[in-house]
Write a structure and sequence with these properties.
Number of domains of chain B: 2
CATH superfamily of the largest domain in chain A: P-loop containing nucleotide triphosphate hydrolases
Order of helices and strands of chain B: HEEHHHHHHHHHHHHHHHHHHHHHHH
Shape of chain A: globular
Helix content of chain A: 25-40%
Number of strands of chain A: 10
Shape of chain B: globular
Number of strands of chain B: 2
CATH architecture of the largest domain in chain A: 3-Layer(aba) Sandwich
Strand content of chain B: under 5%
Radius of gyration of chain A: 18 Å
Largest interface: A-B, 44 and 38 residues
Mean pLDDT of chain A: 88
Radius of gyration of chain B: 26 Å
Number of helices of chain A: 9
CATH class of the largest domain in chain A: Alpha Beta
CATH topology of the largest domain in chain A: Rossmann fold
Oligomer: heterodimer
Largest sheet of chain B: 2 strands, antiparallel
Chain lengths: 241, 547
């Protein structure tokens, strides 16, 4: 479970990027985090994962404060960052082994999971190649495999769909659903509203550092005009703000 | 055609120079650390040139100055061009962007050549111009000399650029297939630099093998340098132009050589340049068929071991990092040994007078401080810790979300440079023992922990600098060190260490030597512990720029 409690953040004094944000994501839930560019989505994700400090409030990951108990909290997080251009000098398998060592995954379990996940994402044959030779989508996939390798209780994804081919998007969505069904949290930010519409249990719409809406897509539609698409609802909320 | 070449050169040159941020909208960027670095280097070169010219004038050997200066600048320029040539001709991102336009191969090649020339002019401007002007004032040269300086300035870098480019064009063509771009680049560059270093070692050996008489050193040095310069075809004619002997004939000689070199280059370009560019691009398309053997490759390792191994991989697995960081360290280690061995087996073995003179030398307080000062200067050439975070680029944020304590990560990141510092310390102390035969092994063993402590402290401080001021958004690996203004902190720290050693010597010169050794050792250890505690307490603040 992730609890964001009254969190604020500002880069320039007096200008709050995130303004007293409250959000709770329960176990087994998929929450889509929507918002226009510059709304504060990545900032929230960076605070949740310990990349950015928190000015006010606190974030609890399975009851552990990311501020006060970062080590314990981080053990339960898996992050898929927005840019997949990391560890380009390593081979795919070297990267996965590095992750396996950092999270101390036993050899037999590691082999089993790497085989299973890489075959699922059609990456098995590319594991012996350097990540720098991968396409954008393949880089994204190797990072996702790396996250799922250590099975974190809370899977956080920053714009995960960007750059993936339709099959990979389908596989990822299936995997996110399966992952949540096992009782884990799946929290992701996206610009692609259709993904949120048919994947999320709840959506949170953020703009200028504040949550404008939190609820199911159905609740959102009920609240606004009937028979409109999520895209139109999203635009309506943002414009109202 | 010329218009296109100028345009392409402008774009590429701007890309190179923008990284240094030397210019802003108003002109020279006074906030750029590079501007100040250049100023410091220029002051140092002015001072050194002035001192050397004074000494040479006293011994009536002022003519050697031009020979040695040109030999040195050619070595610097050759090194620079060899390191950047492969990248500029084949692997630069600019080439990918230019290939989509209707540009002739000749235009593309010449624009790459001119880009390298522009980089060389900057180097020349820093290292050659002031010494040449000072030489002019010492010899009371007239206006023709200064006009000749301008001609020599423009013509000199063309030789290494044309030569190295032609050789690289042929080498790439010789390979039917470039299966591994990184390995290929490393092998070719190392081979080239090894040749240059070998020449340098032979040159050094010739100098230190000569007699201790200054007059004889002068004339012997002049004959060696003239021979070295003669091998570079255009150097001696250009020196003659500066010395105002047969200006026209020598100038024509240089232009003739360049005309031949240009014809050869264009001939090679016609036959192979574009074909080879496309060949190097194919590298990425090739799939390595060898499948991974999970049973063999997947083995659970200790977290610290895996973390350190990953850092070493980033140094050894990347061509540019290897050439810019690891290779100079290897060269330094080899050079220290080669110089010591050649001095011991050459000069000392053949000159009893010199042998007796050195055998009489005892290790005293000054000696200890000088050895430690030299050790610190050698440490300042190691760029592992100062680029530890920057090398990772965007991957550096990984450090912040993995479940490993940030302080522990600092300690682990410190290991590669500390390890290399240990090797250098041992290498240097053995070299000292080989030359200064009277220094006992006990003295060497006592000095070793101090050198190692200095190495660890140096690495620790440089790592903190990089954590506080990381360069995470780079496009090519070349920018990591080229753009790294943090290097200035390394120079400042080296000066601080030298001052501390001087201070320690001054206050403890009348006490036991052991006191001096213990004082320096404890100062080093205390500083390491101080940094350790400070990082532990302020780790979150320290990492705040890694986002």
């Amino acid at each position: 479970m992730i609890e964001i409690k009254n969190v604020s953040k500002s880069y320039i004094q007096g200008e709050k990027i995130i303004d007293h944000l409250n959000l709770e994501i329960k176990d087994g839930e998929i929450l889509g985090f929507l918002g226009p560019n510059g709304a504060g989505k990545t900032t929230v994700i960076k605070m949740m994962t310990g990349i950015l400090g928190i000015d006010e409030g606190d974030i609890l990951i399975d009851g552990k404060s990311i501020k006060d108990e970062p080590y314990e909290a981080k053990k339960n997080i898996g992050l898929t960052p927005d840019s997949p251009d990391i560890f380009l000098n390593l081979k795919g398998i070297e990267y996965l082994n590095f992750i396996g060592d950092i999270y101390q995954i036993e050899t037999s379990e590691r082999i089993k999971k790497i085989k299973e996940l890489s075959k699922k994402f059609e990456m098995y044959d590319a594991l012996n190649e350097k990540i720098e030779s991968y396409s954008h989508g393949m880089r994204q996939k190797i990072i996702i495999i790396g996250v799922l390798l250590h099975e974190p209780k809370n899977w956080i994804l920053d714009e995960p769909i960007t750059g993936l081919d339709p099959k990979a998007i389908y596989d990822l969505k299936t995997m996110m659903k399966e992952y949540a069904q096992k009782g884990n949290v799946v929290f992701f930010s996206t610009h692609i509203l259709e993904v949120a519409e048919n994947l999320c249990d709840r959506v949170a719409i953020i703009n200028k550092g504040k949550i404008l809406f939190l609820g199911t897509v159905k609740e959102l539609q009920d609240k606004m005009k009937e028979n409109t698409s999520l895209e139109e609802l999203f635009m309506e909320i943002i414009e109202d703000d | 055609m010329i218009k296109n070449i100028i345009l392409l050169t402008k774009i590429s040159t701007r890309n190179v120079f923008e990284n240094f941020k030397i210019f802003d909208k108003k002109g020279i960027n006074k906030k750029s650390i590079y501007v100040w670095l250049i100023v410091v280097v220029l002051i140092a070169i002015t001072y050194l040139s002035n001192e050397i010219l004074n000494v040479l004038e006293d011994y009536g050997q002022i003519n050697i100055f031009l020979d040695v200066l040109f030999a040195m600048i050619m070595i610097i320029m050759f090194m620079q061009i060899i390191i950047s040539c492969m990248n500029t001709l084949y692997f630069s991102k600019d080439i990918d962007n230019f290939l989509i336009f209707p540009i002739k191969t000749k235009e593309l090649l010449l624009s790459r050549i001119f880009t390298m020339l522009n980089m060389s002019y900057l180097t020349e401007g820093i290292f050659l111009l002031i010494p040449l002007i000072l030489y002019g004032t010492f010899t009371m040269a007239g206006s023709t000399y200064y006009f000749s300086v301008m001609i020599a300035f423009l013509l000199l870098p063309m030789f290494p650029v044309l030569l190295v480019s032609s050789v690289f064009l042929i080498i790439v063509n010789l390979k039917k297939q470039i299966k591994n771009r990184n390995q290929f680049q490393i092998v070719v560059t190392i081979l080239f630099i090894a040749i240059i270093v070998l020449l340098e070692v032979l040159f050094m050996k010739c100098i230190i093998s000569t007699n201790v008489d200054y007059q004889e050193i002068g004339s012997s040095l002049e004959s060696i340098v003239t021979k070295v310069n003669a091998s570079m075809l255009i150097v001696n004619p250009l020196i003659h132009v500066l010395e105002q002997t047969n200006i026209l004939v020598n100038l024509l000689k240089v232009l003739g050589i360049y005309a031949i070199m240009y014809i050869i280059l264009i001939f090679i370009e016609n036959k192979m340049y574009i074909k080879n560019i496309l060949k190097t691009k194919e590298y990425y398309k090739q799939k390595i068929k060898k499948k991974v053997d999970l049973e063999k490759t997947c083995k659970l390792q200790n977290i610290s071991k895996a973390y350190i191994k990953n850092d070493f991989k980033s140094l050894f697995g990347n061509t540019i990092f290897f050439i810019q960081i690891i290779y100079p360290v290897c060269i330094t280690i080899i050079m220290i040994m080669v110089i010591a061995i050649s001095f011991r087996l050459g000069s000392m073995a053949n000159n009893q007078e010199l042998y007796d003179l050195i055998a009489e030398l005892k290790l005293n307080r000054e000696g200890i401080c000088i050895i430690l000062g030299v050790c610190q200067i050698v440490f300042s050439f190691i760029n592992i810790s100062i680029s530890a975070i920057s090398r990772q680029g965007k991957s550096a944020i990984f450090m912040k979300y993995i479940p490993i304590d940030l302080h522990k990560q600092v300690l682990l990141k410190n290991v590669p440079q500390s390890f290399i510092s240990c090797i250098i310390s041992i290498d240097l102390l053995i070299a000292i023992k080989m030359v200064f035969i009277s220094v006992s092994w006990i003295n060497i063993i006592c000095l070793l922990p101090i050198c190692i402590a200095m190495g660890i402290l140096n690495s620790y401080i440089m790592l903190i600098v990089d954590i506080k001021r990381p360069i995470m958004n780079w496009n090519t690996e070349m920018e990591v060190l080229k753009q790294n203004g943090n290097k200035i902190f390394q120079y400042v720290w080296t000066i601080v260490v030298v001052l501390i050693l001087m201070y320690a010597y001054n206050i403890l010169k009348n006490t036991y030597m052991l006191m001096l050794i213990l004082f320096i050792l404890f100062t080093g250890v205390w500083m390491i512990l101080d940094k350790y505690v400070k990082i532990q307490n302020k780790k979150n603040k320290l990492f705040k720029n890694i986002i």
